């Protein structure tokens, strides 16, 4: 019997809610520590954290070259080789990042982000920790283990909050260690659970796996790198043109006011990938599910924006302390693009399951090109507030176009043919 759109939405909401609960608990620990951290560390130190987070976003998206995206829909015998391939890629990229820190970057350009390469172990730990964290999360989604996935997300926020309160670690190392702990521990669990298959694996099998699933890095990697770099450009521009203090102010407010929608968005993306894949395998269009989710997310964003307009300044002033900028314009102009992006991004997994990755790539190229061309020009000719206004308009327009693409492609039934792999020999 074919399940109704309402039943599919209920299953998706149930799994999303479980993952969101874990993510929310992680954010609760971070939020509980924020009043202490905002008074313990300077805005410049939070600016350095913002730069690290911008790199972390790219690594989370590309640290396994997108092979982890093959895990939810891969054949049973291919799952462990794909996971092992992700581990090899993550370790290799970490070694390359460690070595790259010793290059004379300061001779070629001057940017606050160069402060991070003074600690090569920090950079290498960030790469391997965040990449394996993402691979483990994808493996848990494949097995339908949403409770352990929720625990994984809770542990990341808890460890960051607990370690950051201790001056011994600081903000940067606390963030990196929070990913290293969960990612490496659960990676060990996956290898131990499937130790028989792990021991029988060979470099030849991993190479065969890489070839069979090469469509994932070919079609997904360029777009996601462009997408994440486009998102990070704002932080890099603010730090270069307006200083670390301003980027610290911006990123702190962005994380706090965007936390509710971002946790829902992150959780929904992973659950949506599984359920959209199920719908496509049954040759059913996913548009009814996408439409319902879009309406729900849009309503949540509008409600949160209204709350920010009336109560955001007052609440953040008492929460962060006197040294942080929390006026209504600043709060709302930062909140708007975060809420819009959080509403549209979870729906984009439909483009993976329907095999319309070229459409996503075209949009991501446009997003990247406009970000690296318009935003630097805007920063060079306007004040900080006007730059934030222009950035908000840019994000809203581009993500509206993205939603229209998703709407069009989600109405097409049938399984993905673009990402079907050949079986492993």
Give a brief description:
The protein has helices at 5-40, 43-62, 76-100, 105-108, 120-142, 146-165, 170-193, 195-199, 203-212, 215-241, 244-281, 287-320, 328-344, 350-353, 357-381, 384-409. It has 425 residues and is mainly α. The radius of gyration is 21 Å and the shape is globular.
Series of H and E elements: HHHHHHHHHHHHHHHH
Cα gyration radius (Å):
21 Å
Bulk shape: globular
Major beta-sheet overview: none
Secondary structure: number of strands: 0
Count of the separate structural domains: 1
N- to C-terminal distance: 35 Å
Q: In percent, how much strand structure appears in the residues?
A: under 5%
User: What level of helicity do the residues show?
Assistant: over 70%
**Could you tell me the mean pLDDT?**
84
Count of runs of 4 or more consecutive helical residues? 16
The computed structural class is mainly alpha
* Unreliably modeled segments: 414-425
Fold and architecture overview:
The protein is mainly α and 425 residues long. It has one domain (5-409). Helix content is 80%, strand content 0%. Helix 2 packs parallel to helix 11 (244-281), helix 5 packs across helix 7 and helix 12 (287-320) packs antiparallel against helix 13 (328-344). Residues 414-425 have low confidence and may be disordered.
Question: Which characteristics define this entry?
Answer:
425 residues, mainly alpha, 16 helices, 80% helix, globular
Write the layout of secondary structure elements.
Layout: H1 5-40, H2 43-62, H3 76-100, H4 105-108, H5 120-142, H6 146-165, H7 170-193, H8 195-199, H9 203-212, H10 215-241, H11 244-281, H12 287-320, H13 328-344, H14 350-353, H15 357-381, H16 384-409
Helix pairs in contact: 1-6, 1-11, 1-12, 2-5, 2-10, 2-11, 3-5, 3-9, 5-6, 5-7, 6-7, 10-11, 10-15, 11-13, 12-13, 13-16, 15-16
């Amino acid at each position: 019997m074919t399940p109704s759109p309402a039943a599919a939405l209920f299953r998706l909401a149930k799994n999303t809610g479980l993952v969101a609960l874990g993510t929310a608990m992680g954010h609760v620990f971070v939020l509980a520590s924020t009043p202490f951290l905002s008074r313990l560390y300077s805005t410049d130190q939070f600016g350095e954290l913002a730069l690290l987070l911008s790199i972390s976003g790219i690594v989370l998206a590309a640290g396994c070259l997108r092979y982890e995206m093959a895990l939810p829909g891969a054949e049973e015998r291919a799952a462990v080789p794909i996971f092992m391939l992700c581990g090899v890629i993550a370790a290799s990229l970490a070694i390359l990042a460690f070595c790259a820190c010793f290059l004379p970057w300061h001779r070629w350009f001057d940017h606050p982000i160069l402060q991070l390469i003074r600690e090569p172990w920090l950079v290498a730990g960030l790469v391997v920790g965040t990449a394996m964290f993402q691979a483990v999360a994808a493996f848990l989604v494949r097995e339908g283990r949403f409770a352990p996935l929720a625990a994984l997300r809770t542990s990341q926020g808890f460890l960051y909050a607990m370690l950051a309160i201790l001056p011994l670690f600081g903000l940067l190392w606390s963030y990196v260690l929070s990913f290293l702990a969960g990612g490496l521990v659960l990676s060990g669990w996956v290898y131990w659970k499937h130790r028989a298959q792990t021991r029988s694996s060979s470099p030849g099998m991993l190479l065969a796996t890489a070839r069979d699933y090469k469509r994932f890095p070919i079609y997904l990697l360029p777009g996601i790198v462009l997408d994440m770099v486009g998102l990070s450009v704002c932080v890099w521009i603010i730090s270069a043109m307006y200083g670390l203090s301003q980027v610290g102010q911006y990123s702190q407010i962005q994380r706090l006011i965007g936390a509710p929608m971002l946790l829902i968005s992150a959780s929904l993306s992973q659950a949506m990938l599984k359920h959209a894949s199920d719908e496509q395998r049954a040759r059913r269009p996913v548009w009814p599910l996408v439409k319902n989710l879009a309406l729900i997310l849009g309503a949540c964003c509008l409600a949160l924006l209204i709350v920010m307009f009336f109560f955001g300044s007052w609440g953040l002033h008492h929460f962060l302390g006197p040294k942080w900028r929390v006026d209504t314009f600043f709060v709302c102009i930062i909140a708007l693009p975060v809420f819009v992006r959080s509403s549209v991004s979870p729906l984009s997994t439909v483009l993976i399951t329907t095999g319309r990755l070229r459409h996503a790539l075209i949009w991501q190229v446009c997003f990247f090109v406009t970000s690296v061309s318009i935003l630097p020009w805007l920063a060079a000719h306007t004040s900080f507030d006007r730059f934030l206004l222009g950035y908000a308009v840019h994000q809203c327009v581009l993500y509206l176009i993205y939603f229209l693409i998703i709407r069009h492609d989600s109405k097409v039934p049938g399984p993905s043919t673009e990402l079907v792999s050949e079986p492993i020999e």
